[in-house]
Amino acid sequence: MDLKLSQCFISVDDHDKALAFYRDVLGLEVRGDVGFEGMRWVTVGSPLQPDVEIVLEPPAADPDASPADRLAMAQLLAKGMLRGVIFSTTDCDELFERVRASGADVVQEPEDQPYGLRDCAFRDPAGNLLRFTQKRPAG
């Protein structure tokens, strides 16, 4: 059986700000922009991974979510408590400088980790934690 990741989801509270970050700062390509029942989903992905997509969706993106559930999700998003993603890069330091220059919220500057990676972390405009990792040479 073949099994591969095809999509993951990140909640955002402002799709235009999210697009400015994911498209313009990170360089991901926009693959879709769909509205339905007053909500919007924007799909982005790396040109290097045409079969993997990140869907930027509203918090509580279920048309049947109660107002209380929508409020709870919006509050969790505002606190940065929802999950983000981990990207890999070939140059963590160069990527860090580019993302920092955009004004993104720095969580961790580039740092060598004992498990063989160099990584850094930011929050996207909605508060989601994004990590960027680079494999270090063995030894």
UniProtKB/TrEMBL annotation:
InterPro entries: Glyas_Bleomycin-R_OHBP_Dase (IPR029068), Glyas_Fos-R_dOase_dom (IPR004360), MMCE/EMCE_epimerase (IPR051785), VOC_core (IPR037523). The keyword Repeat does not apply. Coiled coil: none annotated. Residues 4-135 form the VOC domain. One of its GO terms (biological process) is L-methylmalonyl-CoA metabolic process. Pfam families: Glyoxalase (PF00903). It comes from the Bacteria. GO terms for molecular function: lyase activity; metal ion binding; methylmalonyl-CoA epimerase activity. Keywords: Lyase, Metal-binding. PANTHER family: METHYLMALONYL-COA EPIMERASE, RING-CLEAVING DIOXYGENASE-RELATED. This is Lyase. It comes from Streptomyces populi. The lineage of its organism: Bacteria, Bacillati, Actinomycetota, Actinomycetes, Kitasatosporales.
